Structures are given as C-alpha cells and as structure tokens.
Amino acid sequence: MKSDIEIAQETKELPINEIAAKVNLKAEDLEPYGYDKAKINWPAINRIRRGKKLGKLVLVTSISPTPAGEGKSTITIGLGDAIHNQLHQNTMIALREPSMGPVFGLKGGATGGGRAQIIPMEDINLHFTGDMHALTAAIDTLAALVDNYIYQDNSLNIDPERILLKRGLDVNDRALRKITVGQGSKFNGIEHQASFAITVANELMAILCLATDIDDLKSRIGDMLVGYTKDDQPVYVKQLGFQGAIAALLSNALKPNLVQTLEHTPALVHGGPFANIAHGANSVIATNLALHLSDYVLTEAGFGSDLGGQKFMDFVSKHLDKTPDAAVVVATVRALKYQSLRSTDYLDEENLDALKEGFKNLERHMNNMRSYNVPVMVLINRFASDTEQELALLKELIEEQGVKAAVVTYHGEGSKGGVEAAQAVIDLANSNTADLTPTYADDDDVKDKIEKVATKIYHAAGVEYSDKAEKQISELRKLGKANLPVIIAKTQYSFSDNKNELGAPTNFKLHVKGISLKNGARFIVVTTGHVLDMPGLPKHPAALDIDVDNNGKISGLF
Prior knowledge:
By secondary structure, this protein is α/β, with parallel strands linked by helices. It is built from 20 helices and 25 strands.
C-alpha cells in the first residue's frame, strides 16, 4: 500500500468554500489560507453559537497505546467519512492539531492514515495556519515580560526563583528541560533557574482550548499564576497587566480551522494539548461549533480512556454545549497481544491465548467508559496480520461483556470499510440513554478527586503523596483553589504510573510527586511517576526520513 503522504498528495482537495457549504457556512464566514483551509471568523462564530440546533456527540477513545499501533485518529476520521458519505448524514469531525515535536520525533503526526486522513496533511502536520507558532510566541513573550518586570522594577518583589511560568518550544528538545537565564553581567537580567515545556504542554494551550471568546481568553490569561513574592504572596498576570498583549497574540489562533478529509467530510482541526500531561482534547469552540453546524460530531480524546477519555468526561464535557451521546473504544488484535507478550516480535502470528490475556486491558477501558453512564461500542481496527479466529474471539469476548463490537477497515478501504459499524454508532448515539455521571463531585477536595480517579479509573489500591506534593496541596488550600478539577499527568502506557505495568494491573499505589495550579485553565495538574513536559528525540527521529524536492513536494512525512 502507498504511504500516507502519497495517498494524501494524490487526492484533489475541494475548494474550502465547497466544504463550508456542506454545513451551511458561506464564503464571508471564512478567512481562507490558500484554497484548501480556512479559519472561521468571529461574526460567523457568534452567529452559529446562538443557534438552538445541537447534533449528537460521539467521543472516540482507545485502549492503552502500544508500539503495535491502535489507529484512533484513523478510526475517528473513517467513522466520520462513513456516516457522512455512506449513510449521507450531516457530519463533522473535530480533532486536535498535531505538534511538530512528535512529527519530527517518534510518534508521528495526527492526521489519520491510509484512506482515512484529513488533508492537506503536510500543512496540518507542519505549520498549518500558524496556531502553534502564535502560542509559542505568546508563551515566550509572557516569560520575557515577567523577567523584564523583575529586572526593571519588581515593585511586587517577585522571587525570581519562584517563577512558575515556563518558556515554550514546539520541538522535542531535552537540552531545554532545565536552563539558567540571565547569566553574565546584570545587563543580561537577573540570573535564575528556568525551563522549557513543549508548546502543547503549556497552560496557554489549555487556555486557548477552553476559552469561549476573546474576553474569556483575556480573563483566563490574567488569572494565570506567575509565581510568588519573597514573602510568599501569589502574583497573577493581571497584576502585571500583560493579559491584553498576550491575548492579542492569540486572537487569531483562537478561531477554529476548517479543513476536509480525503472523502471531503468537513473537519475542524484546532488546538492540541497532550492527554498524558494536559487535558487532551481539541478546542471547546471547535466542538461547540460542530455541534451547532451538523447532526453528528466525531471527536477524539488523546491516548486511552484512563487519560483523554477520563479528562474529557470529567472536565472537558463541562465546557461543551452538551455531553457525549456515545463513546467508541478503539482496539486492535495486535495491541492486545502486545499487552500480554510485551514484545512486537511475534504479533503477526496467531496467538489466541495472548489475545485472551491482553483482553483484560480492553475490558477495563470499556468499563471505564461505561462507568460514566454513556453507551459504549468497540471498533476493532483490523490489521492485515489479524486472523479470522482472532477477530472472532475478540468480538466474542467484547460482546460477552454486553458491549457491541464491529471490525472495521477504514485504513485500507476508507468509508466503505465499516458502514454497518457507522450505523451502529449512530443508533447508539440516538438511543438517548446517555446521562453522564462524573467520577468525582465538583466540590470534592483535591485529594478526594485524585483518589477517586485513581481507584475508580486506574484501579489503584490507593494514593501516596510526596512531601513536596503535600506542601503544594497546603498552598492550594491557602489560596482557596483546592476544589478545582484535577488533570492527572501520568504515563499513557499503563493504568499505573509505571509504564512497564501493562495489561490491567491492580493493588498498586499511585505516586503523586507534585501539584501545580493552572489558575487560568482553572484546573490542578497532578504529576505522577516519570512524566516529561519536554520530550526528547529518539536515536532515529522521523526528521531523518523527511525531505522536500525542488518543486516544494514533501516526502517521508509518514
């Protein structure tokens, strides 16, 4: 089969005005970026969200990721194409923007694969409409303004060693995890320790994805906690007066991006927080717009149900105009065998015992989603090496749990690779049985929230807190912020905080190493295990395979 980029480059995009017309958007509602992508402008956004129409919302999540691959984005796109093109329903897809760090590193892009992709895939995976660059500029401008404030005046007496803001870069660069700024003479600033996080892990990314309009964006930026004074008083951005400038840098990036799939289904691709270190969903503005513009909306939460799925249900959905009507869990035979074998060496060989053992991982993910009182279905992403016996066994194991399952081949066949599955998902969404029941109550204390997620979703035996975390929780309580939602930063590879504990581990303790307040995003980040907010590059980064010819045609991008 041809590579993803070859398939994408052979597909002729429709003019973006034609894509917009499918959901009753007019040319004057758009700010085109070339002929195949556009931002939706503010007059259109404000008009659309006043409408009473709300489509059905389907959340796509998955089992724990493995090197064997799950194909969650591919299934989301293929499912959207099947509902739109085979079942002829008014459909939109809402996805996150890729980060260039993983694109040039190990993970790859986020535009789907095979015959189920969003296009133009090169643009989306690289510079797109400049949203990531705007965020990076905003992050670093804010850091520079704070350092300059301390250098020039510092009338609030901010402690340079207690600045909580990190600089940002949309690149995997381990050398920037810990740095010293202001070295040399005083002319260069006040010397202090600092660090970089990848752009998508920064609080400004979360704020961009949660803000409802520019006023809300500005308010949230103003509420960001800069750090503490030398006498332990909190300092917020609004005290320094920088919120207007930073909002101005992000005002264009806040508008959602309209693109299309290979089969010309309208797609909104906007925002991109990771799910292991952030909340893992595309922007609230984009999903809400899609709900008002179409009858069915497919959106995706990052990584497995224990990360993106949990955060979407317990946090993101509270910001949307409606909660999910159905949830889809993506699974593969290969990935489930990996959960048992812990190696990719023999995944092409039939192994029913390994599949049965690995099924425990999927079973827990299914039960996670069912615990929210939302109807659930499993889509099995078929690989060429899967045998009929393996597929039949997996389907049987799923349906024994009272969950409907279907095998799909969207990667190889596009929308025709799962028409009955698409109808089953529509039927599930139209069953009107969803009544979202969250994992924790809004007024629960931070420790209660952490422990409920740990025990109910991860199946931990309990939670252990470092001395540092205990101190930080005490500071949260002093600030009156201990009842905010929790965003747990945890490895994506395991239900535990140890990436090597595969399958469905129990009787483990969740180890909380640190707590940080993201006051503008209005959540608390809980750091567990060994999670990095600035990834590094692998020995053979994807960048080694990427090239461009003299006509500007890019190759090697998956």
